[in-house]
Design goal:
By secondary structure, the protein is α/β, with parallel strands linked by helices. The protein is 37% helix and 17% strand. The protein has 10 helices and 12 strands. The strands form 2 sheets. It has an 8-stranded parallel beta sheet, with helices on both faces. The radius of gyration is 25 Å and the shape is elongated.
């Protein structure tokens, strides 16, 4: 430990001297440090380190270990729990089998690291997960399985909404998730926790051109079904039906829009059918639609 501290101190000292020398030279040249000069210093002179994030919660951490999609730097198990049992004991066994370092910090330390999120005494330092390009989803023909259901998400920005949608989709048997790359929430630890870890095991893909992706799938024989609130324009040229009356008889792409604005005009125009959840009573203004994660379950359940 003393040797490690000495090496760390020496490294920090060298880095400080390097930065000081750089800015001193800049000052002699009459260049004011900062801006592009500072950016170049960071890129050229400082050694890059891999970006890690803190995954928290028992199910996300356990499913991430089982799926082995992430590189795990360290497992943090809360100290003071008498005798690790059940899933916590499995976490420890898997970590030890893979030579993953295990630390036992106190609860106050874990609370601070997680910014006081509900961590259940379990955290892991991991590499991030990112959606894969939709081209990696494979060239699946509608004839391969007439009961295929893909969920397409346009512009979901709330991480807890996205997590809840992923949890619902995984529970109901949705085959794949496609997200828009622009204006969409990334796959963060908050999303994983809200999904109860479903994010760690689901196939999540993304597209730069969601409307083009939907049009291509429609030409292949997929049904592209968008979702709208209970109050929609009567002038719509796209057929609108209740999700309870929808007959699922071919592979379907179910498209859900942004929490506030719904589907964009471009994406809605690529749909061949619009599904809606009808309310059970007269609703006041502002309550005509459901939360997107609730709508995902309400519409997917009759289909699945």
């Amino acid at each position: 430990m003393r040797l490690f501290s000495t090496i760390k101190a020496a490294t920090c000292c060298c880095s400080y001297l390097l930065v000081a020398r750089h800015f001193s030279a800049a000052a002699r040249r009459g260049v004011r440090p900062g801006g592009e000069e500072l950016k170049r210093l960071r890129l050229d002179d400082l050694a890059p380190t891999p970006r890690l994030e803190l995954l928290f919660g028992l199910s996300p951490c356990l499913l991430a270990l089982r799926a082995a999609r992430r590189r795990v730097a360290r497992l943090l198990l809360q100290a003071g729990r008498a005798g690790l049992q059940g899933e916590r004991a499995e976490l420890l066994r898997v970590a030890e089998a893979r030579d993953i370092p295990v630390l036992r910090p106190r609860r106050q330390k874990l609370d601070a690291l997680c910014h006081y999120q509900v961590h259940q005494g379990v955290c892991m330092e991991v590499t991030p997960l990112r959606p894969r390009p939709y081209t990696e989803a494979g060239d699946v023909s509608p004839n391969d399985d007439p009961q295929q259901l893909w969920l397409v998400l346009e512009g979901l920005q709330d991480p807890r909404n996205l997590g809840a949608v992923l949890r619902t989709a995984h529970f109901l048997g949705v085959d794949k998730i496609i997200t828009s790359r622009r204006n969409s929430c990334p796959l963060t630890p908050v999303v994983s926790k809200a999904s109860a870890g479903a994010m760690e095991v689901m196939d999540v893909f993304c597209s730069d051109d969601l409307a083009g992706f939907l049009q291509a799938k429609a030409r292949q024989g997929w049904l592209v079904a968008g979702t709208v609130g209970s109050v929609v324009s009567q002038a719509s040229e796209i057929p609108i039906t209740s999700c309870l009356e929808f007959l699922w008889d071919r592979p379907t792409l179910l498209v859900l829009g942004n929490e506030g604005s719904g589907l964009s005009q471009e994406v809605q125009a690529a749909c061949r059918l619009l599904l809606s959840v009808l309310p059970g009573r007269q609703l006041p203004p502002g309550l005509e639609s459901l939360n997107v994660s609730v709508a995902a379950g309400a519409i997917s359940l009759p289909i699945c």
